[in-house]
Amino acid sequence: MSRLEGRVAIVTGGAGGIGAATGRLFCAEGASVVLADHDAGAMAAACAAIRKDVPGARVHDVVADVGAEASAANIVAETERVFGRIDVLVNNAGIRAYEPLAQAKRETWERLLAVNLLSYAYLSREALPALRASGRGSIVNVSSMHAFIPRAGMGQYDVTKSGIVSMTRTLAFEEARHGVRVNAVCPGATLTPFHEKRFAAAGQTRAQIEAIAARSCLLRRWASPREIAYPILWLASDEASYVTGTALMADGGGLTTQPP
Ligand SMILES: NC(=O)c1ccc[n+]([C@@H]2O[C@H](COP(=O)([O-])OP(=O)(O)OC[C@H]3O[C@@H](n4cnc5c(N)ncnc54)[C@H](O)[C@@H]3O)[C@@H](O)[C@H]2O)c1
Hints:
alpha/beta; 7-stranded parallel β-sheet; 8 helices; 47% helix; globular; binds nicotinamide-adenine-dinucleotide
């Protein structure tokens, strides 16, 4: 339980399902963690839960809209002020939109690009001096299986997730000489409080929710947020010291032809 002992990590979208699970796991593995999120209430709850689950957890929250460029420098400065260094950056904040491309609005495009893609670029740029100074800096970008697998109805989101994979590869090339590894995790269907609320609002039963995942991957079930946090942890840690520029699928086998 000490894979990140002495390290300092930033996790954006840290109040959400995957971000909070990652923050909890990182704290349990010895890291000092800054959770950055624009939802102050959810973040207070996430921090309280982490402190309860992980005695002595070093977790600090920064309320920020990562869709605004200036937030990146603020989050980095606050992390260095509180914990004195940065070793790991997990770009995880993400929003969704359900517009077919034929009806896609400019405001939706701009918001998704700002939060899902440009926030990753600006946080990486601002954190890189500290990550280079770390000597074992690691960036983990949370993309999606839909960076690679097409579907109808979420084109703007899927474009940002493909862009994240491309950015990951370029940054890995650029930063290898500076000792910073850059990788992406591509989750499949992960049952987070966001999805739970969405399904409840749509009146879907537990059986209907399970059926969605059963159709979507070989393992025929949803991932828990913790099952995505573990691949993120691995890529962030020294156990992945020879891994950079990769996109790790954490998708239960993905959208494939189902076995009988
Ligand atoms: N859950 C899934 O099935 C799934 C699948 C593939 C990829 N992902 C990706 O994983 C990441 C985390 O997803 P999740 O399911 O935990 O989502 P979530 O909605 O539970 O959490 C996202 C978090 O990001 C925060 N956030 C949104 N906009 C923000 C902004 N402008 N500034 C700061 N914080 C902001 C939200 O407040 C929320 O806490 C996202 O990038 C998502 O696209 C999720």
